[in-house]
Structure prediction request, 190 residues.
Amino acid sequence: MNIKSLLFAAFTLLALCSQAQTQVNVKVRQDYAIVPQKDHAFSLKKKPFQLLFHVKNNDAFLIAFTQDADLYRSAIGKADLEVSWFENTGMAEGFFNEEKTILLSDEAPSYWYFTDLQDHRFDKHPQGRPIEWTAIRTVTQVYQVESEATIPVKDLQKPLYFVIYQTEVDEELNVIGQEILNHGELNWQN
Prediction:
């Protein structure tokens, strides 16, 4: 191996190691306590809860919520159904999560972002900068987009599944792929 090849390999390795990796860590809090998770599943009481986000190297992501277990499994690569979330753009939601709601849709994801303290889709008072930040999203109800129905958490019968991802687009902004950043299952205790 000549010196040129060795230097090229070293610089390539250094470049790969120094590339920032996007991370979206999610915890769930209910009754002022962090809910333990096992294999991306959380067991919750049928009452309001909070999603806690710690995000690195990304100021935005798409998040899709469903009650369809097969759609969720397909999105995370464990089943083989078409996932329309991946083909559609994100739905806009209001600033600061005033309604304490998440959008439930089998067709399109939500677009959540943090630009600064005055421009985001989370509860008031997130912390950090777009390169690394923490935020909370309180959930008291879900809005089922296709049926246009608002459902309080206490009335939910089936689990809620979520998939957090980012898309890869070509020069013409056509979606050509996606990267799953996190996912989870919210199960209800009896």
In short: The chain is about 10% helix and 45% strand.
